């Protein structure tokens, strides 16, 4: 009744297998293997790949992943940066406690829901204004947060994160030796978080009404 990991890797990829084995796992607990978990992990990898393609598609030769001045940031920029800042802190705390499954769940929720489903969609209107200051700010924040997500996710999914990282503007030779994200008090915007959540609640209410 054994599972051949090489066959799983051949069908779904090594990153998907690693991700699935870490998901919902806790020290000392047994876990049940299922194809559904592997497929879910592969879907997440596809989601991350497509989001990265969108970001790269909107970058130009002058684009980088460094943050612009705070005064240039829009409400949604400060919201995503503040949320990512909290994520970096929570992921480190859970890894230090060997709660690898909890840390991965935090990264997954942020990358899929907060970054892909919300922030990317919110940034599109500014990105359509090609060459504008607002568009440059949006793409810089997109690149910064995406790079941070890749670094947080790298211990779990080393292959796809390295592949995407090499396509983004970066300073280190490899994501493997780049600095892991840390909490930064300067990137905490609690008031903007509250204001943005009200906007998102209104959007959710409109969608539910439809």
Give me a quick take on this structure.
This protein is mainly α.
Structure description:
The protein has 210 residues and is an all-alpha fold. It has 8 helices and no strands. α2 packs across α3. The radius of gyration is 18 Å and the shape is globular.
Low-confidence stretches: none
| First and last CA, distance | 48 Å
The ordered string of helix (H) and strand (E) elements is HHHHHHHH
Question: How much helicity do the residues have?
Answer: 55-70%
Give a quick account of the main beta sheet: strands, pairing sense, barrel closure.
Answer: none
Portion in strands: under 5%
Q: How would you describe the shape?
A: globular
Total beta-strand segments: 0
Structural class: mainly alpha
Which whole number gives the mean pLDDT?
91
Provide key terms for this protein.
single chain, mainly alpha, 210 residues
Present the secondary structure layout.
Layout: H1 5-12, H2 14-22, H3 35-57, H4 75-96, H5 100-127, H6 133-153, H7 158-167, H8 190-209
